[in-house]
Write a structure and sequence with these properties.
Blueprint lengths: L7 E2 L1 E4 L3 H12 L4 E5 L5 H5 L15 E2 L2 E2 L11 H15 L3 E3 L3 E7 L2 E6 L2 E5 L2 E3 L6 E2 L13 E4 L13 E5 L3 H12 L4 E4 L9 E2 L2 E2 H8 L33 H6 L3 E3 L2 E5 L2 E4 L3 H26 L21 E3 L5 E6 L3 E2 L18 E2 L2 E2 L4 E3 L16 H29 L1
Parallel strand pairs: 1-9, 2-3, 2-10, 3-6, 10-25, 12-21, 13-14, 13-21, 14-17
Antiparallel strand pairs: 4-5, 7-8, 8-9, 11-22, 15-16, 18-19, 19-20, 23-24
Pfam families: Pyr_redox_3
InterPro entries: Auxin_biosynth/cation_transpt, CHP04046_FMN-dependent, FAD/NAD-bd_sf
Keywords: Oxidoreductase
């Protein structure tokens, strides 16, 4: 869509990913004039920050962007990278949002009843703002990386594409969340020696008692639980469970990898003198991941029993491998390490937001995207409202809720002026 930037809009959306485009979809339905600012290009992360073997972790049927559900012939499969990009591109074309790509928002502040935004395309004002830039703005790499020997290649998961891009030799993967574990598997399957540095990430079975675990959890109602439920407020900081949709889907079991030659370590403590140092918590990390795995399966067992469902028998995962010791250091040169992949997540960038909407952890204070400042909203964050809030499953539902609230805010703000005009 080609257009000229106006000096004022009823609404401004910051971020042209799935959340920002979903917001634009509903803003258009309400007939609300708006603009979407995208720092890079629409759907940039899907196209430029995923590795070649990337695929969905949740089944295709969970792709539920607004008026754009998955329409392929494999709802219980897992789209690979090119298929995901095609799905998103069809959504982009369908929404036809008023997006200014390559445009950064450098400041957002409140001036009287309006919001003033400074952007790389110029300044403007708005009656309302939706911040849809997610938590994944910039790769987060620990300062310890500065002490890694210069002859070792270091990249973040955002820049990893395939084993062939790395020099010959062993690879250290730091971080056992979804990306770290899937990339470690990618390297392992390619025959590379992998040193896996674990953390507190939980894991989940892919299939259990005859079905995908995601299907069971949907039936149980896990995807309907909101952040407002007791004990759920900390969920927004949780690490995602690791498993994969690769080759039709399977568990990721680091213990199995260890039996096949992968070396495992506890959480990284630092780097010193050419050595990577670790906490002695490998066993705890593996045990805690398995505890979550078995706990999810037990939840499914209870559901099956309560509903009298005919299903294959229950089972409990038993460790395939136990560490004989707790390794506390890795001599990078002696072990032939030539590459380190930092699977250490991302950091949000809200530095431009000059509004008091954040809590002590830097997370926006909100209720399903509605902040404490009238006319300011956030979208696309993990556990904004439900488990699916930051994903294709529920980002559209959250966007609809936010835009409905925004429309009500604009209508209420316009009432005094309408009454004054009517009485004149």
């Amino acid at each position: 869509m080609t257009f000229s930037l106006k000096p004022h809009y009823s609404a401004v959306v910051i971020g042209g990913g799935q959340a920002g485009l979903s917001a634009s979809h509903y803003l258009q339905k309400h007939g609300i004039d708006h603009v979407v600012f995208e720092k890079k290009t629409v759907a940039h992360k899907w196209k430029n920050e995923r590795w070649d073997a990337f695929c969905l972790v949740t089944p295709n049927w969970q792709c539920q962007l607004p008026d754009h559900p998955y329409d392929g012939d494999d709802p219980h499969g897992f789209m690979v990278k090119d298929e995901i990009i095609a799905y998103v591109d069809r959504f982009v074309k369908k929404v036809n949002a008023p997006v200014l790509e390559g445009t950064s928002v450098t400041s957002l502040e409140k001036i009287g009843d309006l919001f003033r935004l400074s952007t790389s395309a110029g300044a403007l004002t708005a009656d309302s703002v939706i911040i849809a830039t997610s938590l994944y703005s910039a790769p987060a790499i620990p300062r310890a990386a500065e002490r890694v020997p210069d002859d070792i290649l270091q990249i973040h998961t955002a820049d990893y594409r395939n084993p062939g891009q790395l020099p010959d030799g062993a690879v250290v993967v730091v971080g056992s969340g979804q990306s770290g574990c899937q990339i470690a598997e990618d390297l392992h399957l390619a025959g590379r020696k992998v040193h896996m540095v674990t953390g507190n990430a939980p894991r989940c079975a892919r299939f259990y008692r005859g079905r995908d675990v995601v299907d069971w959890l949907a039936d149980v109602g896990q995807y309907d639980i909101t952040i407002a439920h007791d004990g759920m407020t900390k969920k927004k900081h949780d690490t995602n469970h690791y498993l994969t949709g690769r080759d039709g889907g399977r568990d990721i079991d680091l213990r199995k990898f260890a039996l096949e030659g992968m070396s495992l370590y506890g959480r990284m403590e630092g780097v010193s003198g050419g050595r990577m140092l670790f906490e002695a918590n490998l066993k705890d990390n593996l045990d805690n991941a398995d505890r979550v795995y078995n706990g999810i399966n037990a939840l499914i067992d209870r559901h099956i029993a309560e509903k009298g469902i005919d299903a294959p028998p229950a089972s409990v995962y038993a460790p395939l491998w136990e560490p004989e010791s707790e390794p506390t250091e890795l001599d990078l040169k002696a072990e032939g390490v030539t590459s380190i992949i930092w699977a250490t997540g991302f950091s949000p960038d809200w530095s431009y937001v000059g509004l008091p909407i954040f809590d002590g952890t830097g997370y926006p204070m909100q209720r399903r995207g509605v902040t404490g400042i009238d006319g300011v909203y956030v979208l696309g964050l993990p556990w904004l409202w439900t488990w699916g809030s930051g994903r294709f499953l529920a980002v559209g539902k959250d966007a609809e809720h936010v835009v409905n609230h925004l429309a009500g805010h604009l209508e209420a703000a316009a009432q005094p002026a309408l009454k004054q005009a009517a009485s004149a």
